[in-house]
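User: Design a sequence. Structure:
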């Protein structure tokens, strides 16, 4: 799941450290694609300090939600539906349809949460702003990170740009997908393909929006306290 879908499960949570913890694995990967952190394997390093323990709880919640989501029938069925729509427009692209449909389902879910006012993006960013950088730095250092400068450079840009506000428009989801693909392929799409991608997402969203909340209800029912 993407940022806002993870936030959905903690949108009533007043603990900003736990809120950012639920998206921290993705923030880390965006900042350092080669970082592999496993704080859940050394919990004793984080449990004695309240802020660090909340970050850990959020991190573990992220892993729990992703595990349920990616193993669900809902995800596999929706990915297959979107893949069929994408295959005709990816014939001349190096991008794997399975990869694009995987990320596409996740971003369209974020879009639907926003346009249907299931989450408040500005409140999400308020939580990010409220977290103490010193606690984040300590958490990442205890995870084994030796250089956090790049992470905080990305995080500060992420917060100041409020990039997720762009998810309110479906065409921006297409450009977000293009940017993600550019991390793996030098020239993933022609500009025409981005336009065609938006067209296919418009078709797909009418399929997904009928029962998209089912997966959130399913995950909520399975989450541990």
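Assistant: Done.
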């Amino acid at each position: 799941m993407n940022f806002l879908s993870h936030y959905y499960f903690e949108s009533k949570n007043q603990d900003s450290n736990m809120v950012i913890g639920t998206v921290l694995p993705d923030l880390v990967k965006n900042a350092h694609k080669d970082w592999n952190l496993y704080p859940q394997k050394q919990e004793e390093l984080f449990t004695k300090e309240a802020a660090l323990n909340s970050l850990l709880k959020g991190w573990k919640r992220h892993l729990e939600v992703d595990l349920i989501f990616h193993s669900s029938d809902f995800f596999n069925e929706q990915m297959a539906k979107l893949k069929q729509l994408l295959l005709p427009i990816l014939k001349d692209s190096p991008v794997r349809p399975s990869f694009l449909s995987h990320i596409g389902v996740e971003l369209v879910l974020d879009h639907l949460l926003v346009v249907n006012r299931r989450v408040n993006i500005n409140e999400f960013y308020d939580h990010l702003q409220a977290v103490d950088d010193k606690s984040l730095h300590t958490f990442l250092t205890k995870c084994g990170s030796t250089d956090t400068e790049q992470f905080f450079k990305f995080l500060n840009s992420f917060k100041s740009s409020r990039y997720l506000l762009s998810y309110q428009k479906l065409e921006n989801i297409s450009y977000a997908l293009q940017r993600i693909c550019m991390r793996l392929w030098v020239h993933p799409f022609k500009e025409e393909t981005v336009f065609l991608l938006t067209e296919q997402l418009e078709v797909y969203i009418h399929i997904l929006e009928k029962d998209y909340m089912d997966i959130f209800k399913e995950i909520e029912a399975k989450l541990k306290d």
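Residues 18 and 58 are 4 Å apart (CA to CA). The chain has one domain: 3-222.
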